[in-house]
Design a protein that fits this description.
This protein is mainly alpha-helical. Helices cover 63% and strands 11% of the residues. It has a 3-stranded antiparallel beta sheet with strand order 3-5-4. Strands 1-2 form a two-stranded antiparallel ribbon. A hairpin with a 7-residue loop joins strand 4 and strand 5. The longest helix is centred in the last third of the chain and has 26 residues. The chain starts with a strand and ends with a helix.
């Protein structure tokens, strides 16, 4: 990272610096329960989703998602059940323990930002993040082709 007078010199430096701070704010190192908080909330919002759908939402490999789900299932936070219409498909459901665990450690990031940004700044930040995300995704898709 390049800094001048303590300020990031590139957009990448600024974005990755912010991401690191948010991650540190939400997760203590080596705390598996906290580490999976985001995934538990994603499962709660998409209860009954397939593992591949969850992997796409987090932009991770399906094999990585399988590892994470196995750990959550071992801890009793989720369960995987066969789809009644298509027995080949496994669906992921959050358990009551998973709901409790997710709520115990979750402080929504918007609360942090709402304390810092005005509503107009927040709207602008969201638009800029979406524009950057779409551009990076488009560039990545071009490289894959």
């Amino acid at each position: 990272m390049r800094f001048d007078n303590g300020k990031p010199q590139t957009i990448n430096d600024a974005v990755f610096g912010l991401m690191r701070l948010i991650k540190r704010h939400h997760h203590k190192p080596h705390d598996r329960k906290r580490k999976f908080t985001r995934l538990l909330h994603l499962i709660q919002e998409n209860d009954g989703a397939k593992a591949s759908e969850l992997a796409n939402l987090l932009d991770i490999r399906p094999s990585s998602m399988t590892e994470k789900l196995s750990a959550l299932e071992k801890d009793g936070y989720i369960e995987r059940r066969r789809d009644p219409k298509d027995q080949r498909i496994l669906r992921v459901y959050i358990t009551p323990d998973g709901l409790e665990q997710g709520q115990k450690f979750h402080k929504p990031a918007p609360t942090i930002f709402n304390d810092i940004l005005t509503p107009d700044e927040e709207a602008l930040f969201i638009r800029l993040c979406e524009k950057l995300r779409d551009g990076v995704k488009e560039e990545r898709d071009d490289v894959k082709s």
